[in-house]
Amino acid sequence: MCGIVGYIGSKNAYPILIKGLQRLEYRGYDSSGVALYQHDKINVFKKKGKVSELENFCTEEETYTNVGIAHTRWATHGEPNDINAHPHQSMNGTFTIIHNGIIENYEKLKNDLAAKGFTFYGQTDSEVLANLIEYMYNEGEHVNAELAVRMALSRVVGAYGLVVMCKNEPEQLIAARKSSPLAIGIGDGEYYLASDATPMIEYTKSVVYLNDKDVAIITKNSFTLKTVDNDAAITPEVQQLELSVGELEKNGYDHFMLKEIFEQPKTITDTLRGRIDPATKEVFLGGLTEVMPRILDAQRVVIIACGTSWHAALIGEYLIEEYAQIPVEVEYASEYRYRKPIIRENDVVIAISQSGETADTLAAIGLAKEKGALVLGICNVVGSSVARETHAGIYTHAGVEIGVASTKAFTAQVTVLTLIALHLARKHQTINNERYFSIIDDLMCIPGKVESILLKHLAIKTIAEKYSEASNALYLGRGYLFPVALEGALKLKEISYIHAEGYAAGEMKHGPIALIDSNLPVVVVAAKDRYYEKVVSNIQEVKARKGNIIAVITEGDNALRNMVADIMEIPACDEVVTPLLAVIPLQLFAYYVALARGCDVDQPRNLAKSVTVE
């Protein structure tokens, strides 16, 4: 959620820090700040609001330094304001820290420190951690800053991505990580720190991703890696970034969300590339090769995810059960860890996360591994925690996604789940050749068909503007298109702030029908599939109650065209891959509704791109 940036080297750190914070704005935040080592002291500047407000605040200040840290905060403990913004300093100013995550035992630590004479200026758990480090530094004999940090972290319960500056040891940054991502970029006589690779991509391609309980001691010319519990140096694993600066720009689009919607023909193609043999049309999933025997022996598949990824998981459930004939359960990661689920050693658990850093999903992965299940990951970020913590997995190749409301990551995840279902079905011989090749052929045509939908985006814009003043909306779908209805409703509520709910169309009579009147837009995903006739009946029920119906229909469906108020068309295709098409108009509809309402499309209020706290 929050964003961390740090620099130590020979350049002026301040512009690097500010640009880094701007790169991390997509993660969601409500305040920002910088700490600069200058003239034998650490100066802190921080402001509630956007990074631009911090930049304006610093205009009249001297900002030159070779060592600095910066942060964007998403409030957990304490309201968003200048005081609670990061960086935080210890009572005597010896230590300055930036911190992502939550210190769960901060109240006890705070009370213990208060009894020892420490005072606090804010309400954050992070300030408590700064003071705990100072206490360790002052109380022990021969305790340097590194040891004080490690001693303090040994008493902490919770999650942290942490960077520390010590006034008495100025040419040094200390970084640590537990359950909150932190990366170190390696330059020539300089180092960059960040929550993810986006702030450092234009400076270096060499990156070390910290593992849980790693502690890094960084100077201009050295980088030492230890752990919280062990003083022995360990060898870092240096990885090469594949990200490009161009991926972080809007490239002429008004918003990242619109850019990412329009990138989907390419991202679906990239996700398919190398995974379907053009000659035999067999699916090849290299990331699962070594564990495939165990997958084929699985008695059950459990898919864990949050938000948009959970909707993709529901489509995966339908696909795997119908074609591979394996029982599947889909779980909210945020609930899975706490409800004491039954997990067996012959289960396969699939964790889905765009960022690969979703805290709830990582916690669920840990539980599944403890119980002996095979855990697979589907994620979009190379080197992410999900990629490192799972036994095997598949990257979606969607490229960096900046818009908070996920779009291309969803279609990439559904594409991967479709490939998994078809691969398992072939291995289990639960699908005949004719059906298999028919689905594969339609799957390979999806990018071109998405392109044809995008060409009609202005027609969808006109429809969206018509409904932009709505207060509520209902989304309906059946079968493979029920999760699409859920996803469409989520997109609308995320970025337009219109209350929207998705329902299985057959459930409408069990409650939601009471809401329908002439003021309620009802979006029905009504492509021609095995449920078509039943969905038409649902539409008639809505129409009888004067609901305003917007239907996603298959091209050439003149019957529905004449029955509903507005239509958004998609090309005909096999129902198995229809979700990849049907979701596109709903993404565009949400985008244009939000635009008409004057909402901040890329950074909707209260939301964060990467949810790294539970």
Q: Would you kindly provide a written description of the structure presented here, covering whatever features stand out?
A:
With 614 residues, the protein is α/β, with parallel strands linked by helices. The protein folds into 3 domains: 3-246, Aminohydrolase, N-terminal nucleophile (Ntn) domain (Glutamine Phosphoribosylpyrophosphate, subunit 1, domain 1), CATH 3.60.20.10; 250-450, 3-Layer(aba) Sandwich (Rossmann fold); 456-601, Glucose-6-phosphate isomerase like protein, domain 1 (Rossmann fold, 3-Layer(aba) Sandwich). Helices cover 35% and strands 22% of the residues. The chain has 19 helices and 24 strands. Strands 3-2-4-1-10-9-11-14 form an 8-stranded antiparallel β-sheet. It has a 6-stranded antiparallel β-sheet with strand order 5-6-7-8-12-13, with helices on one face. Helix 3 crosses helix 4 (125-139). The protein is globular and about 80 Å long. The mean pLDDT is 92.
What is the β-strand count? 24
First-last Cα distance: 11 Å
The first-level CATH class name of the largest domain: Alpha Beta
Spatial arrangement of strands, main beta sheet: 3-2-4-1-10-9-11-14
Radius of gyration: 26 Å
Largest sheet: 8 strands, antiparallel
- Number of domain modules: 3
CATH architecture of the largest domain: 4-Layer Sandwich
User: Helix fraction?
Assistant: 25-40%
Features:
Glutamine Phosphoribosylpyrophosphate, subunit 1, domain 1; 24 strands; Rossmann fold; 614 residues; 6-stranded antiparallel β-sheet
